[in-house]
Amino acid sequence: MRRVALALVLLAASVGVAACGGSSSDPASTGQTSTSADYAGAIANPPKPAPPLQLQDSLGKPVNIDDYRGKAVVVTFIYDHCPDICPLIVSNLHAAQNELGPQAKDMQVIAVSVDPEGDTPKTVKQFLDEHQMTGRMEYLIGSRKELEKVWSNWNIVSKDDPSRKDPDAVEHSALVYGISGSGKITTLYPANFKPQQIVQDVPKLAGS
User: For residues 152 and 81, what is the distance between their CA atoms, to the nearest angstrom?
Assistant: First the structure.
């Protein structure tokens, strides 16, 4: 697991880290572009097995990332009252699903909460409804202990930021991971990724 965590650290450094209320980095703008024409996202070289991810969704249904083998799985870490970056990520994933059309069945979106106190079944339901993602995205929640274990495995930082005007704001890593059908972290996207990047990569991820 330490090797996987180290790999995630290096990947995060290659595309930049964004936090709600902050700025996001585009690989193209930092010179860290993909080295292969096969994928639009930054590439893990070599791909690494995805860390464990097993929690309940906002409806109380158990979700295990291993159950989605054979599909491209997109994993992101958000909270439902985020003012800027989280809605942007979800909006772009929604747009990617629409552009994929029938191929969207080969893609599974998993969002993991970075705010165990603020993300409740009620607020998550409202968030999914507002962003037209009900039934199109698994939104995983849990206790702080459960979520902190996942954050650690995926090298995600989540912390309250008392310096912000909004006392409920959460500063957190806002990377998007592309997991192949064989269960490996293969691509990584910044918070301000373009929907077309996901559209281009999903068929390749699902088949690898």
Answer: 22
| Assigned token pair, 118 | 């603020």
User: For the chain, what percent of residues have pLDDT higher than 90?
Assistant: 68
Helix axes of 195-206 and 85-100: crossing angle, nearest 10 degrees = 60
Q: What is the rounded CA–CA span in Å between residue 203 and residue 35? A: 19
Lookup: tokens for 116: 């165990």
3-state secondary structure (DSSP) of residue 89: helix
CB 150 within 8 A of CB 112: yes
Q: Would you mind telling me the total number of residues written for the chain in this entry?
A: 208
Which pTM was predicted? 0.82
Q: How many CA atoms lie within 13 A of 87 on its CB side?
A: 10
Q: Are 188 and 34 in contact (CB under 8 A)?
A: no
Residues 41-55 pLDDT 10s: 999 888 999 999 999
Residues 153 and 54 sit within 8 Å (Cβ to Cβ):
no
Structure tokens at 46: 């070599």
Give the amino acid at 123.
Answer: T
Cβ-based neighbour number of residue 148 at 10 Å: 14
Q: Are 78 and 111 in contact (CB under 8 A)?
A: yes
Give the C-alpha separation, 103 to 150, whole Å. Answer: 29
Residue 175 DSSP symbol? -
